[in-house]
Amino acid sequence: MIDPFVRINPGGGDNCEHGFNTSHRKLEFDENNSATFTHDLALADVPVVSKGGTDYYQFLLDINQNNKGETDHFLSLNKIEIYSSGFAGASGYPGGLGALQWSLDGAGPAWVWLDYALNSGSGSGDMFLYVPKSVLSGTYIYFYSRFGEDYNANDGFEEMSHPARRTGSFAVSFCRHRHRRRGRPRALVSKRNPSVVAPRGSWLHGRSRPRSP
């Protein structure tokens, strides 16, 4: 069961979608207007997990794509930016969200190749994001993400959540290259951006155009 702090869904015929969590209304981009699904997030509410002596904040992404065409189940996650602020209800991307503390592009251009077909459907989760605890601080965090620049959004909403608070080991392991599908690694951690750890059903690439699957 996903308990999101931001739900994003494009309107009309848009192929790209983006947005961030906040309790401020009016919302700015493609966020769902319900306070149940899009709201402020206190950093203290994000679970911390430990691996190899390092503590990480843990986030969970759940996506929705259709399987009608050969590549329709793919979705690109093109941008993640995590901001910190001492104030609730932030608005005005990007300057009004506070201090930028972590970015997917922080170590060079990167995007994540997601495959909806590798998991059991909506609500089960598709990617874990682990951000080192040492890089985030403050009272509230605002999580901006953008999807669909390389592989378009074509179905329902995308949701970012924090899993139920837990201690101990990760819910999934680090990259295991022996898990393969269509000759590609099932999970690949970029040496340029090691904060993205064990994305389930995902690949991390540079922003150059990917090869056909």
Biggest sheet overview = 7 strands, antiparallel
SS-based structural class?
Answer: mainly beta
Number of strands: 14
Q: What's the number of domains?
A: 1
Spatial shape: globular
Distance between the termini: 30 Å
Q: Work out the radius of gyration.
A: 16 Å
Proportion in β-strands:
25-35%
Tell me about this structure.
The chain has 213 residues and is an all-beta fold. It has one domain. It contains no helices and 14 strands. Strands 2, 3, 6, 7, 8, 10 and 14 form a seven-stranded antiparallel sheet that branches.
Any key phrases for this structure?
mainly beta; 34% strand; single chain; disordered C terminus; seven-stranded antiparallel beta sheet; five-stranded antiparallel beta sheet
Write a short abstract of this structure:
The chain is mainly β. It has strands at residues 4-8, 17-20, 41-42, 48-51, 54-62, 74-85, 99-103, 111-115, 127-132, 140-147, 158-161, 180-181, 184-185, 202-205.
